[in-house]
Amino acid sequence: MAKKEKTVVKPINTTSKRAYTWHLMKRNKACYIMMLPFFALFTIFTIVPVVMSFPLGLTSFNLVQFPRYIGLQNFYSLFVNDDIFLIAIRNTLIFAIFTGPFSYVLSFILAWLINEMNPFLKVFFTFVFYAPSMTPSAFVIWQLVFSGDAYGYLNSVLMDLGIINTAKQWLTDTTYMMTVVVIVQLWTSMGAGFLALRAGFQNIDTSLYEAGAIEGIQNRFQELFTITIPAMGPSLLFAAVLAISGAFTVGGVGASLCGLPSTNYAVHTIMNHAQDYGSIRYEMGYASAICMVLFAAMLITNHIIRKALSKFTD
Amino acid sequence: MASDKRLTAAQQEAIQAKKLKKLRRKKVDIDTVHVKKSKGKHINGSLGGDIAIFILLALLGIFMIFPLYYSIIQSFKPISELFVFPPKLYVISPTADNFSNLFKVAGNLWVPFSRYVFNSVFITIVITILHVFVCCCCAFCLSKCRFPGYGFFNQLIVTSLLFTSTATWIMQFVVMAKMGMINTYWALILPSVATPMGLYLMRQSMSTINDSIIDAAKVDGAGVFRTCWQVVIPNQKPAIATLIIFVFQGAWNVQGGALVYQEDLKTLPTIMSQIAASGIARQGIIYASAVVLMIPPLVIFLIAQSNVMETMANSGMKD
Question: Is this prediction's ipTM beyond 0.90?
Answer without folding.
Answer: no
